[in-house]
Amino acid sequence: MSVKLGVAPIAWSNDDMPELGGETSLEQCLQEASQAGYTGVESGGKFPKKSSELIPKLNTYNLKLCSGWYGANLRKNSVEEEKELIKEQLKLFKDCNSPCIVFAEVSGSIQGDPNRKLSTRPKMENDEWKIFSKKISEMGKYLEDQGMPLAYHHHMGTVVETQEDTERLLDSTDECVKLTLDTGHLLFAKGDSKKILENYSGRIKHVHCKDIRKHVLEKSLKEDLSFRDAFLEGAFTVPGDGCIDYKPLFEILKKKDYSGWLVVEAEQDPKKANPLEYAIKGFNYLKKILNQTNIEIDQK
User: Domain containing 49 — which CATH number?
Assistant: First the structure.
């Protein structure tokens, strides 16, 4: 088996906080992602929305589009409305041969609100869960039929945040609904990535390798910080720079024959954490652990 290594542009430019890396060009991001060793990059706010413009840029730096975020509002919108809203991004991802869309429900999310403590994040009652799960299944089937799998991203500050939320979503939706496992978000929510990998391997389509600085995590939980304050404090970092041991996780991936993308993602202040330096650090760590677990890196 082999995996591919990608990186998210959020280390260079933060779409939720444009003042972080706002002056950094897309070209710098792509050049440094390639320089660090990655063969793929997720989409971001500075990326062209038309494939005729994006593909040449990616080709210049020998990069592929390895997915990207889509924030849905299915708690408010109908499935038909959401299909219309995702249409432009769906076409872009299909044209670029992306493996999936990283899909997350953001209605009521507090992830971008500096005044909302994480404990006040939105939650759904049983009746809403049933309606929501049905809608997610419908979107999953639609995107599957389009050749662009829905890979749901559990995320701090949203209605699907914890391991329990994630398992409930997978248990109550059809097989067409896949998962983006984010190691950092799951640990932040006091979850266990190993259990998700063991029990839901067939649903995992995409993996975000995000690490956590343990002392910042403990402070964030103790003081009930907002999501924004937590990452500005330095909660997130690249693999190899935090407290997550990826070897046991990769051993499970090997056993389950995972052959998708591993994407380094760590929102940090680029003035405090040089994006190229940290991209290289994350790449080298993953390369080392993959070598230890006898998983090849596909560099095509």
Answer: 3.20.20.150
